[in-house]
Automatic annotation (TrEMBL):
It comes from the Bacteria. InterPro entries: HTH_LacI, LacI/GalR-like_sensor, Lambda_DNA-bd_dom_sf, Peripla_BP_I. Gene3D superfamilies: 3.40.50.2300, lambda repressor-like DNA-binding domains (1.10.260.40). PROSITE patterns: HTH_LACI_2. It holds the Pfam family LacI. It comes from Ornithinicoccus hortensis. This is LacI family transcriptional regulator. Keywords: DNA-binding, Transcription, Transcription regulation. One of its GO terms (molecular function) is transcription cis-regulatory region binding. Residues 13-67 form the HTH lacI-type domain.
């Protein structure tokens, strides 16, 4: 393994120390840390064992300067406190880690301006960007692609790789379910004004209403939170309906809380359906009927596409990747009450 001089003991181990002890070239050590997939498993394991033995740690800044590769990708979410983003983050982070990347997380707080500022701060430090429910304009997102690979989640932009859930099918299943229970008029609690997903869901509500001979009203735009859903009750009371479909589960849960405070019983008097199937949907009383979206798979799929693009793969930008959804029926929906 070679001897260690007194001078060696006083300095931090280098890539050359690892290479000498492992019996490989310094460039092989560099690849083992920067791009594990380009080194055989046995060699990579040997290099990492030697590095651990002598206390060597790769310097990501130095590696980025020499290779122009930082080993980091960015994920921007519109609201880090929104439970719908938790599985998306986990799916993206797990996939990134398995490929040797570190995920950098940024929160735009539902602001396109903050989103752009966050991206400016990480520009040059990350190799690619994942945009979740971006609040920026299509033009701004296209400009971003000139800096490097970009994949958009929960939104479709022509010419840019995108991963979305099947919003039209999810809305259709929810409307069919409510119609089968005898509900003829349904209120849609809309999400943020700048949300592409909200536009898709409201369009699907209108189309399903026409096809199923139902009537739909819209309240919004609203803040997509529990508080936003609770505040919507007052506006709903101006034109009450026997069923409500909310933009997301948080709004649905808040709406049910607001109804409860006014003595209105769910589902005996009003049926409520949410969207996304967050963990809390199964904890509230009554449990929430919701359209379940494969959120973790969305994060993982987007990260896989981004990492492939970073590696030189041609982006699949002709049409978005559409992930399936399903209706999960629980206790918040029931037959329409007889007048």
């Amino acid at each position: 393994m070679g001897s260690t001089s007194p001078d060696d003991a006083d300095r931090a181990p280098t890539i050359y120390d690892v290479a000498r002890r492992a019996g490989v070239a310094p460039s092989t050590v560099s690849r083992a840390f920067a791009r594990p997939g380009r080194v055989s498993t046995a060699t990579a394991q040997k290099i990492r064992a030697v590095a651990e033995e002598i206390g060597y740690r790769a310097n990501p800044i130095a590696r980025a300067l020499s290779t122009h590769r930082s080993g980091m990708i960015a994920l921007v979410v519109p609201d880090i406190t929104n439970p719908v983003n938790f599985p998306v983050i986990r799916g993206a982070e797990t996939t990134a880690a398995e490929a040797g990347y570190t995920l950098v997380l940024a929160d735009s707080r539902e602001s396109g301006e903050r989103e752009r500022a966050a991206l400016d701060r990480v520009a040059g430090s990350v190799e690619g960007v994942l945009l979740t429910s971006s609040r920026m304009s299509d033009a701004a997102v296209r400009t971003l692609t000139k800096r490097g690979p970009v994949v958009v989640l929960n939104r479709a932009i022509t010419g840019i790789p995108s991963v979305v859930t099947d919003n039209p099918r999810g809305v259709r299943r929810a409307m069919e379910h409510l119609g089968s229970l005898g509900h003829h008029t349904i209120t849609y609690l809309a999400g943020p004004e700048a949300s592409w997903v909200d536009g898709m869901r409201w369009r699907a509500v209108r189309e399903a209403s026409l096809e199923l001979l139902l009537t739909a009203h819209r309240i919004g735009p609203l803040v997509p939170t529990v508080a936003g859903g609770a505040r919507a009750v007052q506006r709903w009371l101006e034109r009450p309906t026997s069923a409500v479909l909310a933009y997301n589960d948080q709004m649905a849960i808040g709406f049910m809380q607001g109804l409860r405070e006014r003595g209105i019983v769910v589902p005996d008097q009003v049926s409520v359906v949410g969207f996304d199937n967050i963990l809390a949907a199964d904890w509230v009383t009554p449990t929430l009927t919701t359209v379940a979206s494969p959120l973790r798979a969305m994060g993982a799929t987007a990260a896989q596409h981004l990492i492939a693009m970073i590696g030189g793969a041609k982006p699949h930008a002709q049409a978005p990747v559409v992930l399936p959804v399903r209706l999960t029926v629980r206790g918040s929906t029931g037959p329409r009450a007889r007048s």
